[in-house]
Amino acid sequence: xxxxxxxxxxxxxxxxxxxxxxxxxxxxxxxxxxxxxxxxxxxxxxxxxxxxxxxxxxxxxxxxxxxxxxxxxxxxxxxxxxxxxxxxxxxxxxxxxxxxxxxxxxxxxxxxxxxxxx
Length: 118
Known about the structure:
Elements: H1 7-22, H2 26-42, H3 49-53, E1 69-74, E2 81-86, E3 92-96, H4 113-117
Antiparallel strand pairs: 1-2, 2-3
């Protein structure tokens, strides 16, 4: 193949052309989400939990409450869970709904490489 371009770049160009002609950016968003996860996996990087929770793991749809997913809170006071259901593929994710819980990346003692270099 002497064209010098990669297949993912060609796929991205086709996806952009298809999404711009149909008016919806959903296929482009799904493609870019899949690429982001593949690049992170290939380069052995961890994605932020905030990024992981904002996309459907099954179909790579960007999750927006009321638009592309439904969000419910179930359970009693001690065992509450947030259930997010994707409206495109029906996949569900369950996360704990503890108001005192703080993700590691949100804690003040957490430092990343870019913060150490400054």
